[in-house]
Amino acid sequence: MDFSQAYQEKLTTPEEAVQIVKSGDWVDYSQTCAIPVRLDEALAARHGDLSDVKVRSSITMQPLQVVEAGEGSFIYNAWHCSGLDRRYIDQGKAFFNPMLFRNVGAYYRKGYAPVDVLMLTVSPMDAYGNFSTGLTNCCVQDIIDVAKYIVIEVNPNMPRVYGTTGDHIHISQVDKIVESDAQIPTAAAPPATEIDRKIAGYIFPELSDGMTLQLGIGGMPNALGALIAESDLKDIGMHTELMSDGYLNLYRAGKITNMKKEIDRGKGVFSIANGSRDLYDFLHENQSIYSAPIGYVNHPDTIRQFKNFVSINGCIAMDLYGQVCSETAGTRQISGTGGQLDFVTGTFESENGKAFLAMSSTFTDKAGVVHSRIMPTFTEGDVMTTPRTQVPTIVTEYGMAHQVGLPTWQRAENIINIAHPDFREALIQAAEAQGIWRRTNKR
């Protein structure tokens, strides 16, 4: 069947396509690289005609015009924060939308997250009328299933990525089509610092041949990836929420084969990809990698099926009880829960699973004052991302603090041992005052 006629019938301009939006609507932009640039511009241009339009997305990688130019008509809500989303929230131009990543698809399916209009970027149509959702699978299928109207922005720069549910949308499901040649936004990998390399050095001996690896993003995962690429480790598997250039480097070094995975054998699996143009080109029609819904990738029932699963993510701060914050600084939104709790939970169920949460021991504020990331208690509105009952192993540049199964006094000792030396005595005094320090503890 030739779908070209249907394509031409639905093809229109961005300005015409966004007329489908009404005041009071919920408009979903999908997430990260799938955010539709031309449709966003056209919708923002209607700011004088519309009111109370709620726009939902996350991990914004380039300015959103409904925020930049549409103030007063649009309310932006982010599931997870990029640096740009954080700035919008700081400026009072956006709101954070708390979620547990493995459940976000169910929020749509169960009606907690209504969608009047879905707008997203896709790859060009194939001979069978399908448009690949490319770099963002996540919960796209769930949004497609509940959206009243669907408008796609077809962009030849979006790679065609194979996958399971959520990897494509058929032209019969689409109401309007616009075309764009905008560049798909890229994200530069942050360089590894000396602290990153020290942290990676503590984690590296815990790794083994045949493991299945989940890496977060940032300098430390990049440092760890460099160690793996230069090592004798082999037959690594990829099963990750977010695929970044760290994985691309491991593929090119021949470290990832996916041949020892207990499920999805021979396939590297991700839900969102975010990185360089090289990464996007590598994913284009690459049959050794597929995208899958976040509800599958992040679900503990999936993760537990891997015998040797290793999960490595970052965090912002922790207290002496072992509670971890990975998303706020006080009441200021920095990031989001994302999949951290999903992977910590699932990795514990893996037969030989190992999960690590990493951070530098200190940070320096704008006034040049150094603060400990390890504090006696959380008291300033910090959001707990991972409760102490599920925190695995914390790593700083001073070592590793195991937490599982330990009483409060052992947790406190382990935690203080990886704090910056300048803050350890004050932390010991706090632990004593809080009743979680024994006379036999090491000073």
TrEMBL record:
Matching entries from Pfam families are given as: AcetylCoA_hyd_C, AcetylCoA_hydro
Query: Where does this polypeptide localize?
Result: Cytoplasm
Give residue ranges for domain Acetyl-CoA hydrolase/transferase C-terminal: 275-431
What residues does CoA bind to?
G216, I217, G218, G219, M220, I316, G339
Write out the entry's keywords from A to Z.
Answer: Cytoplasm, Fatty acid metabolism, Hydrolase, Lipid metabolism, Transferase
Q: Which InterPro entries match?
A: AcetylCoA_hyd_C (IPR026888), AcetylCoA_hyd_C_sf (IPR038460), ActCoA_hydro (IPR046433), ActCoA_hydro_N (IPR003702), Butryl-CoA_acetate_CoA_Tfrase (IPR023990), NagB/RpiA_transferase-like (IPR037171)
Please tell me which top-level EC class this enzyme sits in: transferase
User: What is this enzyme's catalytic activity, as reactions?
Assistant: butanoate + acetyl-CoA = butanoyl-CoA + acetate
**What residues does the Acetyl-CoA hydrolase/transferase N-terminal domain cover?**
5-183
Q: Does the keyword Transferase apply?
A: yes
Asked if Signal is a keyword of the record, the answer is no
EC number(s) recorded for this UniProt protein: 2.8.3.-
**Active-site residues, record numbering mapped to chain:** E241
**Pathway of this protein?**
Lipid metabolism; butanoate metabolism
Q: Molecular function terms in GO for this entry?
A: hydrolase activity
Q: What is its main location?
A: cytoplasm
> Which interval of the chain is the signal sequence?
none
Q: Which HAMAP family match?
A: But_CoA_trans
Name the family the entry cites.
Answer: Belongs to the acetyl-CoA hydrolase/transferase family.
Role noted for this protein: Coenzyme A-transferase that converts butyrate to butyryl-CoA.
**Name of the featured protein:** Probable butyrate:acetyl-CoA coenzyme A-transferase
